[in-house]
Amino acid sequence: MLKYFRINTIDLYIIKKFLGTFFFALLLIIVVAVVFDFSEKVDDFIEKNAPAKAIIFDYYMNFIPHFAVLFSSLFTFISVIFFTSKLAYDSEIVAILASGRSFRRMLYPYVISAAIISGFSFLLSNYVIPDANKHRLEFEEVYIRNHPYNFDKRNVHKQISPGIYIFMESFSNSSDMGYKFSMEKFENGRLTSKLMADYIRWDTTKRKWNLQNYYIRNLKGFDETIITGQSADTTINLDPEEFKRRDEFVETMNLGELNKFIRNLRSQGSDNVSAFIIEKQKRLAYPISTFILTMIGVTLSSRKVRGGIGMQLGSGLGLSFGYILFMQFSSQFAISGALSPFLAAWVPNFIFIIISIVLYRLAPK
Hints:
Elements lengths: L8 H39 L4 H19 L1 H18 L2 H7 L4 H4 L1 H36 L8 E10 L2 E9 L4 E11 L2 E14 L4 E13 L2 E12 L20 H14 L4 H29 L6 H28 L5 H22 L3
Antiparallel strand pairs: 1-2, 2-3, 3-4, 4-5, 5-6
């Protein structure tokens, strides 16, 4: 059994071809992406007087890993089809199989290469890129975006804990102040307390909320107690930073931070927790797609077909883009509540695993 899995010269040859083609293709697309991105944003850099050091190290050095991981599975697939087709048209696969090696054993170096790429993709997307995205998004905020991410939110409704709801007519990010604030507490579906204030402001020194012109109404059965005052400090399960987050802030959280954030949303009874669970599951499911697309790529390109490598690349690209579209559609179904976040992230993998098994059985052995 150990002899079966021992790496030999042919395995090293395939691994070298696989990884070499992958990193070369990825390098080319990264160079093209950087050139296009720079040409699109150069006017912003000049207008905002962005320093060259910041452009290179704060933006592009953090843009490159984000872009590389985003397209790693797609370029794994393209690389497999490209170099395996070349092996097939040079009759090298025929020679490998004729030497007594089975088709299943020939897949072994492909699996090793896919594991290396998948492992790097998982580590980068969950632990390296989130920190890089913080620097990239901070750079964009200062030198690219025309409107700073400071604005007033209107008609804020939010559940901050199970049974506790808040409402604000507006919230100003610049002053950390909410206007026409109210907080309601329910127990067993019945209102037990309601707090209203003209406005609340976050006190950065005390790390508490300050109420101004407040009115508290406590209900216990048929008894009612009313408390009023001009000013009071209170603790509310609400962070002013929540109102300053951009839509992309989830990209700045590593896996541990994302898990903690999801637990916090669940404790608050938040309705939009599905979007963050989908993000977590996608980070776990996406590296697995490297193995699946590798298997599909090998079975599609391991024999000569009419139309040459172009036909194989075309069919391969169609399948890979189908995978990406399937992932996006299933995510939208999960956000709308029609599908669970787990299924949304993993159903594309399950379907393409079945496709890879069917193609493997049809592949010439």
